[in-house]
Write a structure and sequence with these properties.
mainly beta; Jelly Rolls; 409 residues; five-stranded antiparallel sheet; six-stranded antiparallel sheet
């Protein structure tokens, strides 16, 4: 076990790339690897809590009449040539140079990505001001009872109507382009004071901008990626909080159906200021055989507090049954490590352990997709502050030019 300090962005940038690769493998092999947390149904006291926010949203298309603020993410060039019924191998059109403007929201949105930018010198600085704070839809006293009540996931375009005229088939002939607003009231109990509060969005199409209690929090422009925002500076524990999300799906932006709206799950995650960072664990397996496997675990510890924290990180491995439940006692223990985390940054704990006679993950029907879970606990000042689960499979891969891809031989 060793301790290392990294810049705030370095660990999350690496975790993000590995998380994406893990999901790709998981989808290809039917759920092998997933590096995000799978939280227990009843977390121990003082650890993280994940609350579904899928219910009780209000939705309306379009911006309010007489809107006083430029709510565009960026300046878009005009589309002059609309041809999407050509052959699939046709050469692309020449790119059109774009130019940004000080009035658009891009400068306030870009800092959301700082956690994934390795070089701190390239981090985006959030400008002063609160764009959109004067828009009626973000205010707590706005009456949205006339809006449609929806439950997430929600796709505003799927209801149609289909475009039936002309040759154009782009964007699935469904009205996915345009602006849409979502509002939801959040009850944040007084007991959450002092915690870090994060909004997790698994997918929203697209150019999302988020306000909480009238304050612009941040956003995410890309519709095909999940993202997280820190609500802590704008949240009011002990009362009702107003969440507002604006989406702006550009026209002529896709040859296929991209969908529209908040089309995946949304959660509120609550942690102690010292906690496992966003997508902050990474498990790899090496030297895999029927006799043994070496398992490497990296854990990024984030410190949102104002003072340095010394943490003790311990992790155990459990086998999962076919239903994904922990089965029996721990089959391996990683050596514990003490990690000192400066205020406002992250530090990484790394450890390895050998597991005898592992149950290997393999694709059906000839093999069984056995899985394990690494349960990580973080303690600070002797108190449990976070518990995080990372599910994974153990398998060997070999790419052979004659036989193709071999899994576990």
């Amino acid at each position: 076990m060793k301790t290392a300090r990294l810049p705030p962005a370095a660990r999350n940038s690496r975790a993000r790339r590995r998380f994406g690769l893990g999901l790709l493998l998981a989808g290809f092999w039917g759920g092998l690897i997933s590096s995000h947390a799978a939280e227990p149904a009843s977390p121990p006291p003082s650890t993280r809590e994940r609350v579904s926010l899928n219910a009780d949203w209000r939705f309306i298309p379009g911006d309010p009449a007489g809107n006083p603020t430029d709510l565009r993410y960026d300046v878009r060039p005009e589309v002059e040539l609309r041809v999407d019924d050509g052959p699939a191998d046709a050469r692309p059109q020449e790119a059109v140079p774009g130019a940004s403007a000080d009035t658009v929201l891009k400068r306030w949105i870009l800092p959301t990505a700082n956690a994934f930018i390795r070089d701190p010198a390239r981090h985006h600085r959030r400008p002063d001001g609160n764009p959109g704070g004067d828009v009626a839809y973000v205010r707590a006293d706005f009456d949205d009872r006339g809006w449609a009540g929806v439950t997430l996931p929600h796709d505003w375009a799927i209801a149609g109507p289909f475009v039936t005229t002309g040759k154009r088939g782009g964007m699935g002939r469904l009205p996915s382009a345009g602006v849409g607003w979502y509002r939801k009231k959040l009850e944040i109990p007084a007991s959450d004071a002092g915690k870090s509060l994060f909004l997790e969005v698994d997918g929203a199409m697209s150019y999302a901008t988020v306000w909480l209690n009238g304050h612009l929090v941040g956003g995410w422009p890309f519709g095909y990626a999940s993202w997280q925002l820190d609500l802590t500076p704008y949240a009011l524990p002990g009362g009702e909080n107003q969440l507002a999300i604006r989406l702006d799906n550009p026209p002529d932006s896709s040859r296929w159906y991209p969908g529209g709206g908040i089309y995946r799950n949304v959660r509120l995650t609550k942690t102690q200021p010292v906690h496992v960072g966003q997508w902050g664990t990474h498990v790899t397996t090496r030297e895999v055989s029927a006799a043994s496997a070496t398992i490497d675990l990296q854990v990024a510890i984030a410190n949102d507090a104002k003072a340095e924290a010394t943490t003790a990180v311990t992790s155990r491995i459990f086998a999962l049954d076919a239903a994904g439940r922990i089965a029996g006692e721990a089959v391996a223990h990683f050596p514990p490590v003490e990690v000192t985390v400066p205020a406002g940054v992250q530090a990484t704990a790394s450890a390895s352990v050998a597991l005898a006679h592992p149950a290997l993950w393999g694709p059906p029907p000839t093999q069984t997709p056995h899985r394990y879970v690494a349960v990580t606990e973080v303690r600070s000042a002797g108190r449990l502050v976070d518990r995080y689960e990372t599910r994974f499979g153990i398998r060997s891969l070999r790419f052979d030019p004659e036989k193709g891809l071999q899994v576990n031989g």
